[in-house]
Design brief:
Elements (H helix, E strand, L loop, with lengths): L13 E5 L10 H9 L4 E7 L12 H20 L8 E7 L9 H15 L3 E4 L9 H15 L8 E5 L8 H5 L6 E4 L4 H9 L5 H10 L6 E7 L6
Parallel strand pairs: 1-2, 1-4, 2-3, 4-5
Antiparallel strand pairs: 5-7, 6-7
Helix pairs in contact: 2-6, 3-4
Length: about 230
């Protein structure tokens, strides 16, 4: 379930697997810019077209929104440098936005597993167990990526990072699964381009406002939790 044939590439330095257009930009745009700028190829797999997101009155209906968000994402990735740098790549899938938890879970796992085998990233980045904010698509993506990662022999697993915030969630259920960051990356040199990349997602401007209001520190410092490659049984 993809809009294009998979691209033969790899190995990558960093591979993001996220459900929606814009999930790549808030917490990792600076890290991507730094790695790409240093000559390290990176990749992004977006599982849905974001057709169930906010429209802010800019378009009518899910199909029109999906087309708009594809344009926004393309502009964002060009700003980051992901789609203009040899060796880096973006793959867009068409799993149903806001309904990943109802979809065939094995199909999601297979997409993630195939990507890990083919692209051979040094590090894969996705959402933490609580999805950061509890969004069902975020949580399901976490489960699928983790399942795909665990199918690899322990010695062949890439490093795995989750998005992580210094601030525990106020919601008790989300806080119970909160993982504090173990990695912090100063992306101050890239903050101007990062803000420009964020602004490319014009239809999701309320998400931008919410992110900056809640996590202003994460504009200049990108924080991640690194998973133990060989979990204790």
């Amino acid at each position: 379930m993809t809009s294009a044939q998979p691209v033969n590439a790899g190995p990558l330095t960093l591979l993001l697997i996220v459900p929606h257009p814009d999930d790549e930009v808030y917490g990792a745009a600076g890290t991507l810019m730094e790695m790409i700028g240093a000559g390290h190829p990176c990749g992004l797999i977006t599982l849905t077209r974001g057709e169930a997101g906010r429209t802010l009155g800019l378009c009518d209906g899910p199909e029109e929104l999906a087309r708009m968000r594809a344009v926004e994402l393309a502009a964002c990735l060009e700003t980051i440098g992901l789609t203009t740098t040899p060796g880096s790549l973006h793959e867009q899938h068409t799993f149903p936005d806001k309904h990943l938890q109802e979809h065939d879970f094995e199909a999601l796992v297979e997409v993630c597993h195939e990507a890990l085998l083919r692209l051979r990233p040094e590090t894969v980045l996705t959402f933490p167990p609580n999805g950061s904010n509890g969004h069902p698509d975020h949580v399901t993506t976490h489960r699928a990526v983790k399942a795909a990662w665990e199918r690899l022999p322990a010695s062949e697993r890439p490093r795995m990072w989750y998005y992580a915030s210094e601030t525990p969630p106020e919601n008790e259920a989300l806080r119970a699964q909160w993982l504090p960051p173990t990695l912090r990356r100063d992306v101050t040199p890239f903050v101007t381009r990062k803000l420009q990349a964020i602004a490319c997602h014009r239809s999701q401007a309320l998400s931008t406002v919410d992110f900056i209001r809640k996590f202003p520190d994460r504009v200049v410092t990108e924080t991640f939790y690194e998973v133990d490659p060989i979990p204790v049984a």
